[in-house]
Amino acid sequence: MLDHLGVTVADFARSRAFYKKALAPLSITLIKELSAADTGAQAHTGYGIDGKPFFWIGDAGPPRGTVHIAFAAPNRDAVKAFYRAALAAGGKDNGAPGPRPYYHANYFGAFVFDPDGNNIEAVCHRPE
Questions:
Q1: Does 60 score more than 90 pLDDT?
Q2: Domain regions of the chain by residue span
Q3: What 3-state DSSP class applies to 50?
Q4: pLDDT tens-digit readout, 106-128
Q5: 68 membership: H or E segment, kind and range
Q6: For residues 54 and 71, is the Cβ–Cβ distance under 8 A?
Q7: 113 contact partners, CB below 8 Å, separation of at least 6
Q8: CATH, domain 5-124, list 3.10.180.10, 2.60.40.10, 3.40.50.150, 3.90.550.10
Q9: Residue 97 Cα distances to 9, 28, 123, angstroms
């Protein structure tokens, strides 16, 4: 079980704004901000639910590669809302909302590239 995940971003302010908007439809909000002065090194922003940040971005230098991150959505409408919000926030399409039956019968996901090219997904595993 994971407690949290952190990724390095190239433009901290741009990525902070992207994730704040893109994750809002999933009820994932900005919870904690740490400046470079706070940590003695880099700035970090944590997003999560119920006061617990579990997804962090940081300005620890240039990203060294891309990752795939899938966020759980409570229903298919939230997947669609995530996709619209992520595109409006500057994300690039990597797969419109829809069923992906090759994963399993109820898999419904949407994919966008974030400002650093990471493949960000919202997914619901529930039937319609």
A1: no
A2: 5-124
A3: coil
A4: 999 999 999 999 999 999 999 98
A5: strand 68-72
A6: no
A7: 91, 92, 93, 94, 119, 120
A8: 3.10.180.10
A9: 25, 19, 9
122 token code pair: 């919202």
The SS3 assignment for 33 reads: strand
Handedness of CA 10, 11, 16, 21 (dihedral sign): negative
CB 107 within 8 A of CB 64: no
3-state secondary structure of 98: strand
CA dist 11 → 81, 97, 118 (Å): 24, 27, 13
DSSP code string of 13-28: HHHHHHHHHHHGGGT-
What are the residue ranges of helices labelled H in 24-121? Answer: 36-39, 76-88
Q: What is the mean pLDDT of residues 17-38?
A: 96
Q: Does pTM top 0.90 for this prediction?
A: yes
